[in-house]
Amino acid sequence: MIEQKTTKTIKTVQLGNIGKLIIPEDVKAIVDQLHRDIGAIEWSGVLFYDLVDGDISTLKDLVFKAKLVYPLDIGSASYTEFDGNGDLTEAYKMDESLYDCENGLIHTHHSMSTFFSSTDISELEDNSKHYNYYLSLIVNFDGKWNARLGIPSVSKNTTDSMITDSNGKKITISKVSEKEELLMGTIEVEIEKDNIEYDWVTERVNAMKKAKEDSLKKENLARTNATNRYYLNHRGGYSTDTKKKEEKEEKNKNSVNIQLSTGGRLKHISFLGSVITSEYSEMATPWSAISELNNICHSTEEYLDPMEEDIDLLIYTELVMENIPVLYTSFYPEGEISFIDVCTSALKTIATYKRMFDDRNYHDAIVNCLTHYITEKND
Prior knowledge:
The protein is an alpha/beta fold. The protein has eleven helices and nine strands. Strands 1-3-2-4-5-6-7 form a seven-stranded mixed barrel. A two-stranded antiparallel sheet has the order 8-9.
């Protein structure tokens, strides 16, 4: 899902299906390689494409063909963004014919479905106005991709008013008004498949990973230099409320020996269960850990439309992704157990208790996050 900073509401007219987008084998190979190299994290970039058949004025039977996918950003588990003026110099160096192509957006929902969330729709509405027409493509691991086309337009309405002149004669006056609208059509995605891998895609992924790593290092340094001792809350945020922390510690004092294993190390199932909650005293058994996870899974309904289950899952996944390393640092500050060992043990444990999840998608989200960290550290 693309993160938007500003939005402008205009009337959107839904056109239904108006054509298809052909994804050639070489372009599909780029997306596959990005998915392999980046994993269960959202990335985004520019989609270069052409209108190869049909007349845009008819708004039907249009055929677009992708020419190149050029990635520009690695985000988090549930969002990605990049400056609209992203550097495309290297892309044009690779193929000067790209200057004649249309520019659209491509981003991934990795292990999630390729639904257009309200944020994705807002991005399409905001950016379409800068183009004659604007294509947005969402991809994922499963190959069930989704695309929409935005076409900015101006609707004209004529209003007839009848008045009486000074001689008592009836006169009709016509007034024409104009209003901006966005015509939005769905585009069927037709994928050609092959097994190709590109060196330049690997180089781009490495460059984006380094940029993200540098950004995280700055964030971690700022966090380390903070004067207050932060602690995790169940929404994945931090609190500096010392009084509340002391009250919590006093409340849980009697259960500390139950929830921790020998040597004061948190049991791995408890570590897993604590990924998105600070209620450690409730994490004594696998059952209570999974029950707590299930409760948190559904808690997003407090501030989201409960019908948007995919958005719930995206937010849940991001909470898990962000909080795993934070919890590890909190419970193993001396690194007495390696991060990979903890994640690997948690991964084995959660496989045993898969049946205890109300929704297996949440189980899979944790597995994807743990697998990402294990793979990333091994690399």
